[in-house]
Amino acid sequence: MQSAKIMVGTTTGFDPLTMHTIEKKIKDCGLSFGFNTVGITSPEPFYRDEKATIERLDRGLMDGLPWYTKDRVRKANHPEVLLPDAKSIISVAVGYLSTENDEIQESTVPRGKIARYARGLDYHNILKPKLRKFSEQIPVIAGKPVRCRIFVDDGPMNDRAAAERAGVGWFGKNTNIITQSHGSWVLLGQIITDLRLKPDIPLKKNCGSCVQCIIDCPTNAIVAPYTIDNTKCISFYTIELRGVVPRDMRHLIGNWVFGCDICQEVCPPNIKALAGSEPAFEQRQDLSSPELIPLLYMSEESFRNRFRNSPIKRAKLIGLKRNVCIALGNIGNPIAVPPLITILNSSEPLLRLHAAWALGKIGGVITRKALLSALSTEQDDSVSEELHLSLKDMSEC
Ligand code: B12
Hints:
Structural class: alpha+beta
Number of strands: 10
Bound molecules: cobalamin
């Protein structure tokens, strides 16, 4: 940290001649904490984003996220409500692309895919302490008491709108913020402060005529440029949804078992994106293309141990196993039949249902026998229905 340097340069913070110096010092301080881009914007409400989000809630495009309410949207787009007397927002981005890509392309055992942001440690636990320490330096730089409130993802703050207006990056048509250096492989955070700072100018960049993300999203979740239908997004199904994944979605999910990166992988500016420098985001070796069958046998205790500091804990063990069933069905490797039959006989209806679907996709004589046998004892109506559908699909093949 450069605290000594910052102390020496202390100023009042309000003299127009020294303003530039303060902004520069704040940005340098942010960079010294490992943030890759630091921008500043005013606390003016994000009117465009508020209006668009309320409209999307009304159209059902944010369905499935019960905590995402209109009240939250209003707060998220009114920084002046989040910190009374707010004068500025300091917006940061940190790259998470890993330096090494050890994804296994060819494999005899079925493997899944995990979104890149989730292959390292949980970013909330990394960015929040960094941002807090950064915010503690701001009064030191300003030379007077300054109030700050920090946000990383889970607070009621529109992270992307702040990053766009602070010039940290531009909105891609897939709605991700794309930075000049690290592409959209960045996580965002904000400090709202009552220190008045000179705002940056938004970048004069956009995606032009490119619509690659819209074309390549397998579920057509990008229903218009800058508009995601949450109820079609693979990321929503594999991370946030607690119940049954709709039947018509399952075959589109491929082997994603936590999150999805397709709309970022195909985005041209991401081709030359720099890798991040935060060691906590280095991908954990077993998470770039994890073997799926061992995940089906995982106990609650080993899930807790393995994913304690990982974003993957958000899916819970049952959600992860549900996703693994879907991925195994889509991969279609008969090696997965015995473990899926074990799940078909488990105590959890949600898992029995998805195992029934996966077995129906893989097919075969043993599978058919197992589905018929399960049907004869199944007590849960929705699982019985899935067993019927799977058997029907198999007989049509
Ligand atoms: C809810 C949420 C989700 C939901 C819903 C996604 C969504 N539509 O926003 C789900 C679970 C699906 C999700 C998925 C992902 N998420 Co998320 N998510 C959030 C969260 C908590 C809120 C986002 C929000 O308010 N959405 C509301 C919708 C309406 O906003 P929007 O889609 O961004 O649309 C904006 C534009 O349309 C803009 N707009 C309107 N009109 C116009 C016109 C023009 C011309 C332009 C340019 C813009 C524009 O206004 C809208 C509101 O700002 C934020 C954290 C936060 N507190 O902000 C993280 C956040 C957006 N997620 C993040 C990440 C990393 C992801 C994933 C990449 C994870 C993954 N790999 O699986 C995917 C990406 C999927 C995608 N393409 O969006 C990062 C994004 C970083 C970045 N570079 O942008 C954030 C910022 C978390 C963080 N602090 O880093 N996420």
